[in-house]
């Protein structure tokens, strides 16, 4: 059935009503003068009793209950849809032609329910007409269902009672699910080169849902989950709804409490966070989560909403950038950046790493004892990220030492291959906070592992006047050990290998397989970390060797090279003197000289 089947074209009654719209009174006049005036929301309608009581049970009861045969005035209160909806109902009672559309069907259904225009009083009454249009036209189309939902503003609670909202919400979800099934093949294209299937363009209804009020939108999304709409489409819809409804922070002035910031936006953010709580974490882009978190902090949403956003960010913190973490603080007389929020996100990340380790160790089977760890590379990324963040917040004079140290202490030791980034951040903090006591400086510098400083960082630390003496001595000591190790040809720390060997010996009978597996994971992690350190040290030595060779090439002049060549030629000449043939010739000459001397001595003795 099409929409054109729903204009009313009932036979005209004898009264032949018409509408006029004066400023104060709306009169439906005919050959017979009106005999009753109805007041609706401050507007009056001059009508006839008979057409009204023949179709409206409510008006019939009001006329009968008055027991006044000359009743000429009635007042209707709480009319859903107001005077406009009542005018349409009055037209229907008089048989005037008008068309039911998605814009007025909700108003007609609600005013018909209010006026009790059921089949008891006349067949094909307004309730039946509106229900037919809803079931045959509206719920069959996603667009029309959305239009009806948008028109229900101001019609509650009666729109809820007659079931318009529930039917349209379910219709949107069902039609969206059908749309994905039907158009799925059309939006899947085969790549000729790779032979893989790829999907492009988002669902067209994603943007259309943004016109709904937040409470209706929540119900639509919940219904979509039940009907099996794809999670990525739901996330796209959530993102588009947030971008549409959260454009800038709304501020209004209240004479009592001053400036009040976006009450409606606060409700929207809290509702969207509740919807996100049930979605897969990896499907929600991190940039969107950070944007929502910044808005939630500025609008002072509920603590639960902010904690949920922080939890979701913390679970994929390795994908964040430094700019994402630089969240301005909303508290007066506090540090420039919101350090507490980053601290909580880092706690969530560490919890995720520990959960990964516990899940792996729960197998307790050595067939899964591979070195690959889903969290090790993530921890290294987060370690570099946090070191950069510490360097950014360190110059803040209002940043307390306890907050600064709390972030440093959260990361495990294996999160940093070298401590150069941490050393840089600590040095900046010491420079920006000269009022720190000696004990506070020692406490802060103890967090730096002197053995994990590169050659350049160690040289800088050895000459740094801001560092405590104990740390400078420690740096010099480990540099001396490193130099001895390099000269003796030993690479790495022998004690480390001994510690690994001793810790990975025969399994004790008192140790459970799960504890032993966790110990082996720690040893594997330490081994990988030590190998990485050795690679870094080897690259540093190669760079130093290349630098020395280049300096030697640059410092040599042409004269030195000539002198070097001449010295080489002289050396070659000396070497030639000691060739085998020359040595034989010298030996024969010496023997001849010795024999001549002996013959002369014999002649002298015989002459004497």
Automatic annotation (TrEMBL):
Keyword Lipid biosynthesis in annotation: no
Chain intervals with Basic residues compositional bias: 599-608
Chain coiled-coil ranges: 517-544
InterPro entries given in the database record: BTB/POZ_dom (IPR000210), NPH3/RPT2-like (IPR043454), NPH3_dom (IPR027356), SKP1/BTB/POZ_sf (IPR011333)
Domain (BTB) ranges: 34-102
Region span, Disordered: 577-608
Domain of life: Eukaryota
PROSITE patterns in UniProt: BTB, NPH3
Biochemical pathway: Protein modification; protein ubiquitination
Protein name: NPH3 family
Record keywords: Coiled coil, Ubl conjugation pathway
NPH3 domain ranges (all copies): 203-482
């Amino acid at each position: 059935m099409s929409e054109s089947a729903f204009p009313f074209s009932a036979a005209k009654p004898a009264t032949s009503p018409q509408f006029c719209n004066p400023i104060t009174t709306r009169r439906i006049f005919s050959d017979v003068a009106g005999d009753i005036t109805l007041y609706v929301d401050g507007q009056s309608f001059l009508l006839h009793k008979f057409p009204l009581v023949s179709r409206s049970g409510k008006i019939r009861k009001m006329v009968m209950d008055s027991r006044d045969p000359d009743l000429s005035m009635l007042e209707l209160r709480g009319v859903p849809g107001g005077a406009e909806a009542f005018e349409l109902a009055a037209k229907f009672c008089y048989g005037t032609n008008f068309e039911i559309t998605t814009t007025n069907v909700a108003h007609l259904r609600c005013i018909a329910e209010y006026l009790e225009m059921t089949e008891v009083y006349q067949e094909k009454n307004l309730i039946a007409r509106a229900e037919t249009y809803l079931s045959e036209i509206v719920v069959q189309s996603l667009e029309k269902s959305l239009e009806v939902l948008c028109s229900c503003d101001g019609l509650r609670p009666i729109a809820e009672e007659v079931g318009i909202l529930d039917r349209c919400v379910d219709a949107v979800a069902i039609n969206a699910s059908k749309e994905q099934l039907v158009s799925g093949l059309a939006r899947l294209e085969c790549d000729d080169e790779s032979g893989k299937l790829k999907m492009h363009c988002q669902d067209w209804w994603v943007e259309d849902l943004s016109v709904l009020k937040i409470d209706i939108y929540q119900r639509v999304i919940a219904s979509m989950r039940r009907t099996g709409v794809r999670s990525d489409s739901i996330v796209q819809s959530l993102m588009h709804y947030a971008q549409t409804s959260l454009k800038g922070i709304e501020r209004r002035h209240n004479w009592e409490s001053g400036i009040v910031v976006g009450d409606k936006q606060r409700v929207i953010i809290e509702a969207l966070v509740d919807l996100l709580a049930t979605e897969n974490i990896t499907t929600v882009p991190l940039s969107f989560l950070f944007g929502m978190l910044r808005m939630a902090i500025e609008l002072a949403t509920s603590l639960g909403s902010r904690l949920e956003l922080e939890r979701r960010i913390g679970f994929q913190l390795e994908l964040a950038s430094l700019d994402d973490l630089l969240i301005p603080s909303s508290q007066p007389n506090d540090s420039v950046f919101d350090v507490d929020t980053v601290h909580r996100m880092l706690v969530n990340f560490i919890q995720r790493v520990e959960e990964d380790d516990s899940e792996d160790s729960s197998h307790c089977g050595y067939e899964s004892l591979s070195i690959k760890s889903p969290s090790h590379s993530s921890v290294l990324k987060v370690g570099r990220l946090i070191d950069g963040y510490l360097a950014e917040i360190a110059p803040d004079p209002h940043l307390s030492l306890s907050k600064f140290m709390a972030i440093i202490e959260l990361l495990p030791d294996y999160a940093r291959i070298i401590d150069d980034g941490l050393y840089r951040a600590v040095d900046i903090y010491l420079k920006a906070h000269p009022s720190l006591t000696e004990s506070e400086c020692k406490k802060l510098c103890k967090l730096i592992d002197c053995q994990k400083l590169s050659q350049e960082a160690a040289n800088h630390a050895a000459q740094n006047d801001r560092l405590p003496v104990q740390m400078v001595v420690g740096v010099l000591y480990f540099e001396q050990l490193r130099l001895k190790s390099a000269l003796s040809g030993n690479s790495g720390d022998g004690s480390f290998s001994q510690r690994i060997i001793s810790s990975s010996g025969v399994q004790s009978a008192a140790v459970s397989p799960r504890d032993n597996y966790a110990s082996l994971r720690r040893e594997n992690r330490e081994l990988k970390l030590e190998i990485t350190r050795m690679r870094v040290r080897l690259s540093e030595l190669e760079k130093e060797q290349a630098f020395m060779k280049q300096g030697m090439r640059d410092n040599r002049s042409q004269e030195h090279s000539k002198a070097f060549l001449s010295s080489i030629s002289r050396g070659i000449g000396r070497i030639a003197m000691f060739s085998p043939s020359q040595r034989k010739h010298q030996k024969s000459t010496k023997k001849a000289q010795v024999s001549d001397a002996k013959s002369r001595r014999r002649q002298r003795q015989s002459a004497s």
